[in-house]
Specification:
- The chain is an alpha+beta fold.
- It has helices at about 15-20, 30-40, 90-110, 160-165, 170-180, 195-215, 220-230, 270-275, 275-290, 310-320, and strands at about 5, 25, 45, 50-55, 55-60, 65, 70, 80, 85, 115-120, 125, 130, 145-155, 185-190, 235-240, 245-255, 260-265, 295-300, 325-335.
- Strands 3, 6, 7, 8, 10, 13, 14, 15, 16, 17, 18 and 19 form a twelve-stranded mixed β-sheet that branches. Strands 1-4-5-9-2 form a five-stranded antiparallel β-sheet, covered by helices on one side.
- Strand 16 (about 245-255) and strand 17 (about 260-265) form a beta hairpin.
- Helix 2 (about 30-40) packs antiparallel against helix 7 and helix 6 packs antiparallel against helix 7 (about 220-230).
- The radius of gyration is 21 Å and the shape is globular.
- About 40% of the residues are buried.
């Protein structure tokens, strides 16, 4: 039976996400809103597709095109690796991936693409349940001339709260205890919150992010999508409020009991004296645990190696994240080249 492509833009959100529920692998990166988010950046063409065999969807492929660099990529974000339907054996899996590779080559010829940049993440779903696994995580080596690995910091929320706390650095514990003496209010803004509350809190977050960065860092449409994600249950905004003012924010993407840190901002004038960021992270960990989430990804841990030179800011932020005691798991990035 022959294969058929159906491009992302031919689907409605609910139809795409319904098919997503039949897949296994890095599912969370294939949420409708997540793909739409990464498609908003300048000069990106979204050519993501679902692959069908007859009436059955057997795979989904997130594919962005950056024509100016002749690459399959979503701006600075590599494409997540293809995900396949559940219940297939290894022979069928390899056969489907080989066909996907050919489909990508054919699309590449049309757009003059010479590189395919993709990544594989250690949180992998089976039957819509997240697991930590390296199974087939390096499969794309067979088509890649170059790859590199970063550790990402993940907390297993099934661990006892006391044990999670005991893995924090002394520095973080000290600052959390200090901040705990201040009269902060902790807010969880999710799909159950009133719409006007979501609008107000998210607006405060967006303003704080702009002030913290000192400039506009991405298109307004990406913020609109993040707001919609809260309404649709794909995102949660956490805040710390001091004297009726939100001063620290953490936005997480969420999918089937896995949460990952997406964006964070603080009001600078409160950081030095109140140190709200440490307490906010700890409050989020406890809240996610209470909500029965299985894993929480705090973020990647960057080091200088090979041709990768993170900024001082990136190293500082990742050092901060490491001190919350999560375990290191590999996030693998591949660069595949072909002649077009």
């Amino acid at each position: 039976m022959s294969y058929k492509l159906s491009y992302f833009n031919s689907f409605q959100k609910d139809d795409w996400n319904k098919i997503l529920g039949q897949m296994e692998g890095n599912q969370n990166f294939y949420l409708w809103h997540v793909i739409k988010y990464y498609s908003q950046f300048s000069n990106i063409i979204n050519l993501s597709f679902a692959l069908f065999e007859g009436k059955k969807c057997i795979a989904m492929v997130a594919l962005g095109v950056l024509k100016s660099k002749k690459e399959f990529v979503f701006s600075s974000q590599f494409c997540p690796e293809p995900i396949l339907c559940g219940g297939i054996n290894n022979y069928s899996r390899k056969k489907i991936l080989t066909n996907i590779r050919q489909q990508i080559l054919d699309i590449g010829k049309k757009y003059g693409i010479t590189k395919y940049k993709l990544f594989s993440h250690p949180i992998r779903y089976k039957k819509n349940i997240p697991h930590l696994s390296s199974e087939n995580q390096f499969y794309n080596l067979k088509w890649s001339k170059e790859f590199f690995v970063h550790n990402t910091v993940i907390i297993d929320l099934k661990t006892k709260e006391e044990d999670i706390w005991n893995n924090f650095s002394k520095y973080h514990k000290k600052n959390i205890k200090k901040a705990s003496k201040i009269k902060f209010k902790f807010y969880t803004i999710d799909s159950k919150s009133e719409k006007k509350t979501i609008t107000s809190k998210f607006s405060n977050f967006k303003k704080a992010h702009y002030l913290s960065a000192g400039k506009k860092t991405r298109p307004d449409s990406t913020w609109d999508i993040m707001n919609k994600m809260i309404l649709d249950g794909d995102g949660i905004l956490f805040t710390l409020n001091y004297k009726n003012q939100d001063i620290s924010f953490l936005y997480c993407g969420v999918f089937n009991k896995f949460a990952w840190g997406w964006s964070q901002a603080n009001l600078e004038e409160f950081e030095k004296d109140l140190m709200p960021r440490h307490l906010l992270e700890w409050s989020v960990i406890k809240k996610l645990k209470k909500m029965k989430f299985k894993f929480y990804e705090i973020g990647e841990r960057f080091y200088e190696y090979k041709n990768f030179l993170p900024s001082n800011k990136e190293i500082s932020i990742s050092d901060f994240k490491e001190k919350f005691g999560g375990k290191f798991y590999p996030k693998v990035s591949f660069i595949s080249e072909f002649n077009n």
